[in-house]
């Protein structure tokens, strides 16, 4: 994530991707077909997540969320009583209608994943995270194995699995909702949340049907550094919203990582009709707009003021914000359709 997880993974991984170990080795995520029933039946639930099998003999009672986006998902599933701690709370605010529900929940960290000691001290039996980065032992975080040694399983958003990070899709969040609903014995709430999300995406699909797709560049600007986003759930958000991304997932610079640092001339040469950019807050949005307007005055996206700001939290894997980002971008690209 650009903030905490994304910023750390982008800046560190681009510099040292060749030597960075992958924490997990597969991208699939699903419910075992023969153990899909939860408590009340006495059956064990097994979930495949990022190439690992997560096994639950009982419903987790002590859940830790490692990002506000994952906290929101848990709250939307009605699981507030099971959350014993949450982390990276300064990365993004919760929706207003949910904010008070976390008032009494201990905070483990504000702008970075919690330390190994702090996370283990919360005595979780389930830890929910947007990416595998939050379990990087080299950064001082608790690893998957260390959590298991202390009786906890770690659930990573499907789109944040190491080997799926470049090919993640918006609809991966539905897999996460289904899996967490199964793990936490909340299948009805999960079904309702999935149905709502699918309805929202279907409305976008209907609105953009038959339209000519504008070209879009997706960027993250920090100071004078420009990152292009060409793969991952971020790129699928552009595609689902009806944009034609000028940075293709097949481009060599995105072969191993979803983002790449580029020169401004590369944006100019691709001449996008719209620019989508992630922001960490109002100040960052203003700074980025100023940079784009100053650096790319002759690019159609700037000339036509089609600069679309998206909260960075809405670009995290495994969040309902992915759907909100699709809606926001589609409405700006096709103002007459919505």
From TrEMBL:
Check the record and name the SUPFAM superfamilies matching this protein: Helical backbone' metal receptor
Fe/B12 periplasmic-binding domain sequence ranges: 62-337
Highest taxon, organism lineage: Bacteria
Q: State the InterPro entries in the record.
A: ABC_Transporter_SBP, ABC_transptr_periplasmic_BD
Span-the-membrane segments of this chain are none
Q: Which UniProt keywords apply?
A: Signal
| Signal peptide positions on this chain | 1-26
Q: Which family does it belong to?
A: Belongs to the bacterial solute-binding protein 8 family.
Q: What is this protein called?
A: ABC transporter substrate-binding protein
Organism (species): Brevibacterium picturae
């Amino acid at each position: 994530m650009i903030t905490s997880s994304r910023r750390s993974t982008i800046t560190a991984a681009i510099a040292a991707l060749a030597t960075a170990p992958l924490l997990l080795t597969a991208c699939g995520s699903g419910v075992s077909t023969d153990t899909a029933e939860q408590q009340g039946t006495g059956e064990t639930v097994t979930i495949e997540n990022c190439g690992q099998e997560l096994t639950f003999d009982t419903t987790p009672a002590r859940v830790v969320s490692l990002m506000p986006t994952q906290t929101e998902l848990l709250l939307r599933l009605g699981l507030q009583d099971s959350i014993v701690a949450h982390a990276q709370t300064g990365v993004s605010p919760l929706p207003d209608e949910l904010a008070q529900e976390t008032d009494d929940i201990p905070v483990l960290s504000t702008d970075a994943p919690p330390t190994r000691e702090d996370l283990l001290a919360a005595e979780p039996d389930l830890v929910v995270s947007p990416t595998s980065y939050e379990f990087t032992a080299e950064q001082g975080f608790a690893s998957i194995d260390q959590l298991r040694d202390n009786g906890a399983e770690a659930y990573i958003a499907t789109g944040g699995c190491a080997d799926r990070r470049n090919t993640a899709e918006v609809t991966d969040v539905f897999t996460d909702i289904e899996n967490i609903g199964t793990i936490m014995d909340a299948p009805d709430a999960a079904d309702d949340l999935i149905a709502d999300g699918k309805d929202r995406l279907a409305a976008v699909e209907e609105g953009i049907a038959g339209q000519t797709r504008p070209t879009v560049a997706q960027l993250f600007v920090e100071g004078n550094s420009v990152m292009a986003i060409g793969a991952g759930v971020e790129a699928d958000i552009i595609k689902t919203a009806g944009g034609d991304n000028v940075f293709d997932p097949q481009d060599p610079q995105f072969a191993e990582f979803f983002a790449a640092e580029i020169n401004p001339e590369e944006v100019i040469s691709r001449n996008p009709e719209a620019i989508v950019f992630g922001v960490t807050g109002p100040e960052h949005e203003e700074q980025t707009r100023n940079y784009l307007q100053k650096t790319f005055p002759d690019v159609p996206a700037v000339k036509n003021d089609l600069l679309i700001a998206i909260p960075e939290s809405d670009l995290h894997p495994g969040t309902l914000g992915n759907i909100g980002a699709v809606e926001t971008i589609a409405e700006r690209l096709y103002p007459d359709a919505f």
